[in-house]
Amino acid sequence: MNIKGVVFDLDGVICFTDEYHYLSWKAIADNEGIYFDRKINNRLRGVSRMASLDIILENSNRTYSEEEKVVLASQKNEIYKGYLVKMTPNDVSDDVSFTLKSLKEKGIKIAIGSSSKNTKLILKQIGLINAFDEIVDGNDINHSKPDPEVFLRAAKKIKENPKDCLVVEDAYVGIDAANAGHFTSVAIGDAANYDKAKYKIKKLSDILDIVK
Fold first, then answer.
1. 181 and 97 within one domain
2. Which pTM was predicted?
3. Cα–Cα distance between 208 and 50 in angstroms, integer?
4. Which of 23, 41, 172, 198, by CA, is between 20 and 30 Å from 32?
5. CA-to-CA distance for 45 and 9, rounded, in angstroms?
6. CATH code where residue 140 lies
7. How far apart are CA 77 and CA 97, in angstroms?
8. Is the dihedral of CA 188, 200, 146, 120 positive or negative?
9. Catalytic residue among 11, 133, 137, 170, which?
10. Catalytic: which of 9, 133, 137, 176?
């Protein structure tokens, strides 16, 4: 397989902020008197902020206007950013650092394709803002996963055909998006249980066996 580019999801692949998402959404749900637990939180993986809010509001006993939804989503984001500013380069594992360095040495282009609008803030906090050739995030797209837009935009930015690129994802919807965009999908974390993934890995550096 002649892989020329790798597009990474951010959360759950390069770093882990899922707990911060959970705590932030839990605070909003509790304040609104809406039941929310970790099982529901798992449905939010790879999903945009507003789509995540809609999932949470499924358990509400009333209907929210679009204006109210915007306010709640904004409140959640402010809580979430309060956690993000505490992140440091120590939140990046040696395995991730080694993988990115090795791919660069092989001449393989690397990009971020994330639905998060806080992607650049997170990358700055963990010291990886300059580690990728291109970054595409929630601010650049109109459709969130499972639509492949974020990955297609990343491939276009690194000037590579999707068929020559891997997409590394930890969410089922991310794998669906990768497949829909005709990328070679690589599942890690929770998505490693998904039968629609082309490859399943236990640690990020396992992709070096795929691109060699």
1. yes
2. 0.88
3. 35
4. 172
5. 11
6. 3.40.50.1000
7. 28
8. positive
9. 11
10. 9
